[in-house]
Amino acid sequence: MVNEHEHEHEEEQYITLVDENGNEQLHEVLFTFDSEEFEKSYVFFYPVGSFDDEEEDVDIHVYAYIPTEDGGYGPLMQIETDEEWDMVEEVFNTFNEDQEDEE
Predict the structure, then answer these.
(1) Domain ranges for the chain
(2) How many whole angstroms separate alpha carbon 70 and alpha carbon 25?
(3) Cα atoms in the Cβ-side hemisphere of radius 13 Å centred on 83
(4) What is the pLDDT along the chain (103 residues), one digit of tens a residue?
(5) Which of 20, 26, 53, 79 has the highest local Cβ count within 10 Å?
(6) Are 16 and 27 in contact (CB under 8 A)?
(7) What value, to the nearest 5°, has the Cα angle with vertex 39 and ends 75 and 82?
């Protein structure tokens, strides 16, 4: 069972990633969802300002996480198994189809 939690534009949420050099990069959350099968939550996000240039492809990241008690994202974890990637790709494709239907 997969539960999607889409974040409307009015409720923009952000994640700050810190690279190996200590540089902070701000990312906007596209959407999150929970998977009972893998007992994890997942977050899709992209660098802030990526959609400003419509001609460039947007680099969308996805990570697993276990929510914190206060509803935060907790530590981000890489997706490691093919089965988990297949599930994540299916959810993302469904999200894209739903977005196209709304346009």
Answers:
(1) 2-102
(2) 23
(3) 3
(4) 333 334 344 467 899 988 889 999 999 999 999 999 999 999 999 999 877 766 677 889 999 998 888 888 888 999 999 999 999 999 999 998 888 777 6
(5) 79
(6) yes
(7) 85
- Return the structure tokens found at 13: 């949420």
- Alpha-carbon distance values, 61 to 42, 69, 86 (Å): 10, 24, 15
pTM equals 0.79
Burial class (CB in 10 A: 0-12, 13-18, 19+), 53: exposed
Query: Distance (Å, rounded) from C-alpha 87 to C-alpha 4?
Result: 13
